[in-house]
């Protein structure tokens, strides 16, 4: 066990091919494989120090003491893996608006997996780090790597983990992220996706369609076909959200501003002839895939229409790494 505190930094990732349903809730085995882009702009720094004098885990988020059962459960997994019974001090700083569909759980659990396992004296491979992060939050399995990342669904704890598709990305693309609402979302991803699995009549169609999308997008990435990557991304996101609209009870994450931004992105593409495509996750925030050279032109158009919303640009980011606190 490491006596000194360990700090890890992990970046958030945004899925172009969505994970939206589990086969196994405890092991977090997904219904389908997914693909994401790790972003450099939003990240989490997490410091972990095991301390024999602690009666329980002590967790602070952005400087505030919080109780988080998912973190406690995760730390139990780490203790079991390392064969220790000691509690830890965990300090996490989220440079991401938490829980607003900006995949803050992805960067958070990837950073926690790296810092906690190393502080517990483990030296995990990136594959095993991805497996461990997955137990905290499915999408966190992808933030272990940078660039384009695929989470291979696998069938069990050993075979479900992410792999880098293209980590050192030499393609000048990125995402504009508009924070429509950084408040706590109504329905968590965990609840939302399970409702869909259990009640949407479209779920099997989704599995077939998203599996085909994954194959097509990997080919389009290889061919640097930005239009194809964008079209598949936008279509896949809308199919995911169609599941929510068809669930019982139905739900959706859109706010009026989300739809207005989505329509404006389509207009910019069709009338201004600037290639850009949107995606949304379990929240109202719109992420716009674009080429780096077009980012400021798109930002200016959006600022003229939605002055109250800032659209921050993120380039492809790197995988999880240890840093000096
Ligand atoms: O990231 C994606 O593929 C798509 C989503 O972001 C939603 F749009 C899912 C994120 O789910 P997550 O928070 O990882 O759920 P957990 O495993 O129940 O913790």
How would you characterize the overall build of this protein?
With 325 residues, this protein is an alpha+beta fold. The chain has two domains: 6-168, 2-Layer Sandwich (Ribosomal Protein S5, domain 2); 173-314, 2-Layer Sandwich (Alpha-Beta Plaits), CATH 3.30.70.890. Helices cover 37% and strands 26% of the residues. The protein contains eight helices and 14 strands. It has helices spanning 69-82, 104-119, 126-136, 189-199, 203-222, 226-245, 256-271, 295-305, and strands at residues 6-17, 22-24, 29-30, 34-50, 58-61, 64-65, 88-95, 148-152, 161-166, 173-178, 276-280, 286-291, 311-314, 321-323. The longest helix has 20 residues, at 203-222. The two termini are 18 Å apart. The mean pLDDT is 95. The chain binds ligand FM0. Ligand FM0 binds at residues 15, 18-20, 28, 34, 103, 105, 137-139, 189-190, 281-282.
Anisotropy-based shape: globular
Mean pLDDT over all positions: 95
Treating each run of at least 4 consecutive H or I residues as one helix, how many helices? 8
Low-confidence stretches: none
| Name of the top-level CATH class of the largest domain | Alpha Beta
> How many structural domains in the coordinates?
2
Q: What is the chain-wise order of helices and strands?
A: EEEEEEHEHHEEEHHHHEEHEE
Tell me the strand percentage band.
25-35%
SS elements, strand count: 14
Q: What's the main sheet like? A: 8 strands, mixed
* CATH fold-level label of the largest domain: Ribosomal Protein S5, domain 2
Ligand set: ligand FM0
Report the CATH architecture of the largest domain: 2-Layer Sandwich
Cα Rg: 19 Å
Structural class: alpha+beta
Separation, N- and C-terminal Cα atoms: 18 Å
- Share in helix: 25-40%
């Amino acid at each position: 066990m490491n006596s000194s505190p360990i700090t890890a930094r992990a970046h958030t990732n945004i899925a172009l091919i969505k994970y939206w349903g589990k086969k196994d809730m405890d092991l977090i085995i997904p219904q389908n494989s997914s693909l994401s882009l790790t972003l450099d702009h939003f990240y989490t720094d997490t410091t972990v120090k095991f301390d024999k004098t602690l009666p329980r885990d002590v967790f602070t988020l952005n400087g505030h003491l919080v109780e988080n059962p998912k973190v406690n459960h995760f730390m139990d997994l780490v203790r079991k893996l390392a064969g220790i019974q000691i509690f830890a001090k965990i300090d996490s700083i989220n440079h991401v608006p938490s829980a607003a569909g900006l995949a803050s759980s992805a960067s958070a659990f990837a950073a926690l997996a790296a810092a906690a396992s190393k502080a517990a004296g483990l030296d995990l491979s990136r594959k095993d780090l991805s497996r461990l992060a997955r137990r905290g939050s499915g999408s966190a399995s992808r933030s272990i790597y940078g660039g384009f990342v695929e989470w291979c669904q696998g069938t069990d704890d050993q075979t479900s983990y992410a792999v880098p598709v293209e980590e050192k990305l030499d393609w000048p693309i990125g995402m504009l992220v508009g924070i429509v609402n950084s408040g706590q979302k109504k329905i968590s991803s965990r609840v939302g996706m399970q409702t869909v699995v259990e009640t949407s009549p479209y779920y099997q169609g989704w599995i077939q369609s998203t599996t085909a999308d994954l194959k097509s997008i990997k080919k389009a990435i290889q061919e640097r076909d930005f239009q194809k990557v964008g079209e598949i991304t936008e279509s896949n996101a809308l199919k995911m959200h169609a599941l929510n609209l068809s669930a019982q009870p139905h739900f959706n994450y859109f706010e009026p501003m989300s739809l207005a931004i989505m329509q404006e992105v389509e207009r910019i593409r069709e009338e201004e002839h600037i290639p850009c495509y949107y995606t949304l996750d379990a929240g109202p925030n719109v992420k716009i895939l674009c080429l780096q050279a077009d980012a400021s032109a798109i930002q200016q158009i959006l600022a003229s229409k939605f002055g109250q919303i800032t659209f921050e640009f993120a380039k492809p980011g790197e995988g999880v790494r240890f840093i000096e606190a």
